[in-house]
Design a protein that fits this description.
Bound molecules: S-adenosylmethionine
Shape: elongated
Mean pLDDT: 94
Helix content: 25-40%
CATH superfamily of the largest domain: Vaccinia Virus protein VP39
CATH architecture of the largest domain: 3-Layer(aba) Sandwich
Order of helices and strands: HEHEHEEHEHEEEEHEHEHEHEHEHEE
Distance between the termini: 53 Å
Strand order of the largest sheet: 3-2-1-4-5-7-6
CATH class of the largest domain: Alpha Beta
Number of domains: 2
Number of strands: 16
Radius of gyration: 22 Å
Number of helices: 11
Oligomer: single chain
């Protein structure tokens, strides 16, 4: 019987172990998109894959485990013999990655996709089947693995952006359709009080930083810290200013320690893989460590998330400024 926590990664490993998919020839490597560490299987995964992982915590984990990892690989002229695509929560990103993979293969090379059944893989497989013949597939560990072999031309690559006011937002980012209701509520509390050295932890595509710069001319510097590399690239376009700087940061393990006057944030409560409410608490702790005495945190959260204890442990004064639409806005002073 399968061990409880086996998933699409084990199913993928099986495709190589059963030799349904070839390992690379000597001197060649495959690409692994949305890379995650693969299970022990007797195959030297670290030697055969060049990983792409734009989410900083997973990128750090892969590097620590000895994988060669980049935040983005230009696949367009690679002509690889094999590319493995692991799932993103966003269907649009999965389609983009599969298209990038197809275009990055040489003729006869294969693209393999593996995902848990609950990740919508069946409908994605149908979409792929409209573009190329499925060369093989199987289900195992509540997951589906399927692959296609490159024949014919490259596919057109469409990356659709949503435009909302001055902001351009790409697929797969937080609030990809437009500003989040909680972030809008938080921004309604921005004014000239917010001054000096400011940071936005988990800055996404730049909404809070953009609104803040529009509402306060008292800001000396604004650091945007974000783990999602694509969102950070969008933020660079969305918040152009001489006083902004952009940092690809895992706030839970490498938050800045410089003293800020203010930190604003709408912290995540979801990791790349699962709901994780303690993630928000880690953001609050990181903010507290980066604020000197008198420094202030202004944040928003879903009203049912239990952050008060962490806030009261880490800050001298905690005030709820607003409670509306299922969100609470909190100001806390060190
Ligand atoms: C709730 S969203 C807020 C985004 C943006 N500030 C806004 O208001 O639209 C939280 C953001 O935190 C980012 N994030 C998640 N985990 C992170 C981590 N460990 N370090 C830094 N950022 C992270 C997510 O990618 C996401 O963009």
């Amino acid at each position: 019987m399968a061990a409880k926590n086996q998933d699409f990664r084990d199913a993928l490993a099986l495709a190589f172990q059963r030799e349904e998919l070839p390992l690379p020839e000597d001197g060649e490597t495959y690409a692994l998109l949305e890379a995650q560490a693969l299970p022990g299987s007797g195959i030297a995964w670290k030697d055969i894959f060049q990983c792409e992982q734009g989410f900083r915590p997973l990128h750090i984990e892969l590097a620590q485990k000895g994988y060669q990892t980049e935040k983005h690989i230009d696949l367009s002229s690679k002509g690889l013999g094999g590319i493995v695509v692991l799932p993103n929560r966003s269907r649009a990103i999965n389609e983009i990655n599969i298209t990038r993979a197809w275009n990055g293969l040489r003729k006869g090379g294969f693209m393999v996709f593996a995902a848990d059944n609950k990740a919508g893989v069946k409908s994605l497989r149908k979409w792929v089947a409209t573009k190329a013949e499925i060369a093989g597939d199987f289900s195992k560990h509540h997951a589906v693995v399927f692959w296609i072999t490159k024949k014919g031309d490259n596919w057109p690559l469409h990356v659709e952006q949503t435009e909302v006011g001055p902001y351009k937002i790409g697929p797969g980012m937080f609030s990809a359709d437009g500003p989040d209701a909680g972030s809008i509520l938080l921004a309604s509390h921005f004014d000239q009080r917010i001054r000096g050295k400011v940071a936005d932890f988990g800055a996404g595509w730049g909404f809070l930083a953009g609104e803040l710069l529009a509402k306060s001319d008292q800001i000396e510097s604004m650091e945007l810290h974000e783990a999602n590399w694509s969102a950070l690239q969008a933020a660079k376009q969305n918040v152009p200013s001489d006083i902004t700087s952009f940092h690809w940061t895992d706030i839970t393990s490498e938050a800045p320690r410089d003293p800020f006057d203010w930190i604003v944030m709408n912290p995540p409560f979801h990791s790349a893989r699962a709901a994780e409410p303690e993630l928000g608490a880690k953001f609050i702790e990181a903010a507290a460590k980066a604020l000197p005495q008198g420094g202030r945190l202004l944040m928003v959260a879903n009203r049912n998330l239990p952050y008060e204890r962490t806030l009261n442990d880490m800050f001298r004064k905690v005030v709820q400024l607003d409670d509306a639409g299922g969100f609470k806005v909190i100001e806390a002073m060190r």
